[in-house]
Amino acid sequence: MDSNEHPKTTGTSSSTGNGNGTGTTRTLGRSGIEVSALGFGCWAIGGEWQTADGQPLGWGKVDDDESVRAVRRALDLGVTFFDTADAYGTGHSERVLGRALGKRRADVVVATKWGNVFDEETRTALGQDDSPAYARRALTASLERLGTDYVDLYQLHISDADPVRAAELRDTCEEFVREGLIRAYAWSTDDPDRAAVFARGPHCAAVQHRLNVLQDAPELLALCEQSNLASINRSPLAMGLLTGKQSAGRALDAGDIRNAPPAWLPGFTENRGADPAWLVKVDALRSILTSGGRTPAQGALAWIWARSPRTVPIPGFRSVAQAEENAGAIAQGPLTAAQLTEVDRVLGR
Fold first, then answer.
1. How much is the pLDDT for 163?
2. For the segment 61-111, what is each residue's pLDDT rounded down to a tens digit?
3. Where are the domains of the chain?
């Protein structure tokens, strides 16, 4: 397929209805790129990788064949948006996703990220590079691993990058758009001021940021509304806390980042599993999130959809069962306005 003949382009509305108020689709801001209201995050399927001093950065061991089956099952269930990064598994996530999509590449919207430097052979993260020249090298490598000639959404993966340098990278992304290598771009950051730098670019389509029922992000949602951007939501299940399957005092796999959590990953304690204080909050929300026969995870996704019509949560997955559970949230629709208010009351905010 010619790289300038890209599918999945619609008008500029942020969602389309399916009768239950969720909308089965979203449009990525002003790009006109249509995606399913639920995306899938591909961090976990990258498998194990680590920092130079051996700290885990993945979610433990994975079965690549099961990952492929899960991606294809998600496609069958109507999920058309897949978010990965070149660093996930030091390239492995992109390779697995490319293999899983195969000839169905044109049916989906693929987002990936750049900015981290790594060694694929040793599965080790080596640092960061915010230069425009590295952005081009990284994109070329991602295209090869994904087995495609374009990326739908290219995202800066250095959350605290210098804003002046970020403006240069935004201009570099505009060059990539003109060359047909990408369709749109975004910044993965939780800083509204930094996100606003990218938002000034004509082909900026979204902000990727943390959002879940325990960790709201009103300033970033306001920026998305003001700038006509999509809100792509990482950690929609609070790194698994909102699935209802985590427990305190139980260590996770040695290769799981949550077993040795860095400072930016709250909710877990080293070698002791979930933080009991966070589990108290999850338990307090259980009756709301499981309304209408939802699982806790489905209820957490329903809260995000109710929070803003611009949201596209991207829960992770490692199995067909997880793919089916997450995709099943779409038919359930969002929580009600009254339930949103009740969540805030329970959490005291």
1. 98
2. 999 999 999 999 999 999 999 999 999 999 999 999 999 999 999 999 999
3. 15-241+295-336
The torsion region of residue 273 among left (phi > 0), alpha (psi -120 to 50) and beta comes to left
**Phi and psi for 282 in degrees, rounded to 5?**
-60, -45
CA 121, 123, 128, 132 dihedral sign is positive
Cite the beta strand spans of the chain per DSSP E.
15-16, 25-27, 34-36, 39-41, 81-83, 109-114, 116-119, 124-128, 151-156, 182-188, 204-210, 230-234, 268-269, 273-274, 311-313
Class of domain 15-241+295-336: alpha beta
The phi and psi torsions of 218 (rounded to 5 degrees) equal -60, -35
Contact 85, 43 (CB under 8 A): yes
For 4-41, how does the pLDDT look when each residue is reduced to its tens digit (9 = 90+)?
Answer: 356 545 433 344 333 334 579 999 999 999 999 999 99
Phi and psi at residue 47, to the nearest 5° = 80, -160
100 contact partners, CB below 8 Å, separation of at least 6:
67, 68, 71, 72
pTM above 0.85, yes or no: yes
Here the tokens at position 6 are 């890209």
Buried b (16+ CB within 10 A) or exposed e, 318-341: bbbebbebbbbbbebbbbeeebbe
Cβ atoms 257, 265 nearer than 8 A? yes
Question: Are the C-beta atoms of 285 and 295 separated by less than 8 Å?
Answer: no
Residue 185: which residues within 8 A CB-CB, separation 6 or more? 153, 154, 155, 156, 170, 173, 176, 177, 198, 201, 203, 204, 205
How far is 156 from 79, CA to CA, in rounded Å?
23
Q: What is the DSSP letter of 161?
A: -
Nearest to 97 by CA among 42, 152, 144: 42
| 330: amino acid identity, one letter | I
> Nearest CA to 303 among 276, 282, 280?
282
